[in-house]
Each structure stands twice: as C-alpha cells, then as structure tokens.
Amino acid sequence: VIYQNFPNYGIKITLKCYDSDKCNRPFYFVYLILNLAKLIGQNDSSISLYQICKFNEISDKFREAMSSITSGDIDLQELCDIKSYTTRRIDFCCQFKVVDPQLYIHLLNRGRFPSRGKYCNMGYENSCYIAGGKVEDGKIIRHGSITINIYDKQAEMKAPKNHGKGYTAEDLSEAENVLRVEIQAFRRKMIYLKDKYKYPDRCLKHYLNISLAKELLLDYIKEIAGTADYYTHRTLKRKVTEAGFNDELKKIKILNDLNGNAKNRPTLREYIGSQSGNERRNLKGILKTMEDKGINPIAIPNKIGGNITSVSHLRSVYSLIEDY
After folding, report:
1. Cβ atoms 104, 45 nearer than 8 A
2. Residue scoring higher pLDDT (145 or 121)
3. Based on the number of CB atoms within 10 Å of its own CB, is 111 exposed (0-12), middle (13-18) or buried (19 or more)?
4. Helices (DSSP H) in the chain: which residue ranges?
5. 124 vs 115, 139, 155, 235, CA distance in Å?
6. I need a labelling partner for 122 at 20 to 30 A (CA). Which of 69, 87, 113, 248 fits?
7. Which of helix, strand or coil describes residue 130?
C-alpha cells in the first residue's frame, strides 16, 4: 500500500496492489479522497464547506492537479480524468451558527434514535454520532450504508484526535457556536441512489446535487431527531393542553416521565424500551400525534452539568436544514 497526501490540492491518494490468481500478475487500485472546497479554491477558512458549482470547474481543477501530481506522464493521463473514477463515499454536510451547540448535542443524545436495530450510538464527547452497524464484543461492526454525525465544530477541532493539525486561535474562534451536520453515504448508499435515480454510472457529477443532499439530510434527521422544535418542560405541557388532545393526561405523564426527574431523566430510546409490547406500540402512536402538533417530548433542561440553561426555545435541526 502506498499513501500520499497532497494538501495544497485537497487530494489524498492510496495505491493498493492485489495479487490475481486468474491473471498470474498483480493489479492495482487507486483510491482518492477529495476535499472539493480545497480543490476548487473555496477553502477560505478552516471550517469552509464545498459550495455547489459547475462540474466542469471541478473536472478542470482535478485534471490540472493530477497532471501536476503525475508529472504529466502520458501513461497516467486516465488518472487525471475525474470521470474515470467510481464514487464510493460522499459526505453531505451543512453547518449553522447557533446559540449553544452543546445544548443541541445534549438534546439530540436524549432524543429520537431509530429503533430498527441497524444503528448504534457511539462517538466522541460533544457529538451525536449514529453509525450503521452492530455491536459485537463491545466493538462496532459496520454494515450500514450511512453514518450520521452532528457535532460542535469547535469541540471537534479541540478533540485529542485532532491535536497536531495546527488550528490557530482564529480558526477556533471562527468555529465557535458552529453546529455541523454530516450524512456520510457509503458504497451501498451510492449504489442505491444510482439505481433510484437511474444514473448511468457512479461518476461524482451525479451526486453533487443540492436537492439530493437536502433530501438525504432531511430524511435522516427526521428519522433520528424528529421535526419539532425544542421547548422547556412547562411550555411543552402548555402546548399539549392547548392542542386539545382527548388523551391529554397520558401525554402530560409522558412529558413528566421524560423530563420531570432532573437526576434520572431517561433517553427517549430507554423510555420506549422500558414499555411492554402493546404499551410500546401505543406510546409510539402517542409520540407521533404529539410530533404532528409540533411537540417534541424532550424538553430543554433548566441546567446541564450545574450550568443554568439560558434559552427557552430552540429550532429543530430539521427546520435549520429546511432553511439552509
């Protein structure tokens, strides 16, 4: 395996050699990781994200960069054509300046995780991380087509795994109060999207679509966090009363069970899991009717870790993406 990083171009190259019993000779795979913002010169800061542009511009910049990397070798010209590559993964990202990213992470980690068994909650502090896979012997065995990561960008830059990357005080200041949302789509998702939208191949140009990115971001965020905004416990109970539900007392009890005990508040997943079969199904139905009325059962707490919470309302991540 040969690995080479070309940070000025935003390109990382890995060359892998495989032995072939059929051909009695080795064959090679070239894997590239592209930072599109760097490749086309949109990296005006350490937290810059790629902004959609014409694919011809990407293709031209890629050819220019790879021609330089391959020293213009005529036998390697195919490597300079971005259409020669098959897309195995794309990270669809957006980010927002918010009042308190830590509060979002706290609420998300208490909130609506998928219940179909193909996701696991893991990750570093100050992150809401959901990976496709299963747990075996305490380790994540990936088999999913996507990973969802919602995190405090400044906290991520300060995390031990990123020590040595040379972030400046200016970089960290720019990342303050930035909440980043990522949907990492892997090979299985790339194939699924190709078949769904009848793309002729898995060339990168088909996936660089703002409508596609927004569709994926909204679909998965709805699944893991719902669509309703966050409010205080008192406001949520008032909204339930104002909605005129026939089973108002049941809904008030759910809100109290989830948010009433400051020292032992369950996550929504834990709360649903504590119910028996019929009760669990009924609970999910009640939660659905609450969400339809814009009521998120997870309340903004008065305090987090001893620190008083200064906000009484937060827009949902879903609504932030809708307006992105």
Report:
1. no
2. 145
3. buried
4. 36-39, 55-69, 101-110, 153-158, 169-174, 187-196, 204-207, 210-225, 233-243, 248-259, 268-273, 277-292, 317-322
5. 22, 15, 10, 31
6. 87
7. strand
DSSP class of residue 161? G
The DSSP secondary structure of 35-50, one letter per residue, reads -HHHHTT--SSTT---
CB atoms within 10 A of CB 172: 15
- In this model, does residue 126 exceed pLDDT 60? yes
Helix and strand numbers, DSSP H then E, in the chain: 13, 12
Give the helix/strand (H/E) hosting 84.
Answer: none
SS3 140: strand
Sign of CA dihedral 302, 305, 310, 311: negative
Residues 241, 221: Cα–Cα separation, whole Å: 27
Considering the chain, what percentage of its residues have pLDDT values greater than 70? 91
Q: Is 135 helix (H, G, I), strand (E, B) or coil?
A: strand
Contact 29, 16 (CB under 8 A): yes
Nearest Cα to 98, choosing from 214, 156, 171, 176? 176
Torsion from C-alpha of 297, 241, 231, 267, nearest 10 degrees: -20
141: DSSP letter: E
Confidence of residue 114 (pLDDT cuts 50, 70, 90): low
Q: Which two three-digit tokens encode residue 226?
A: 């719902």
Q: Residue range 87-108: average pLDDT?
A: 94
Question: Tokens 């090979």, residue?
Answer: 187
| Residues across the chain | 324
Please identify which residue in the block is written with the tokens 């400046």.
Answer: 168
Give Rg (Cα) of the chain. 23
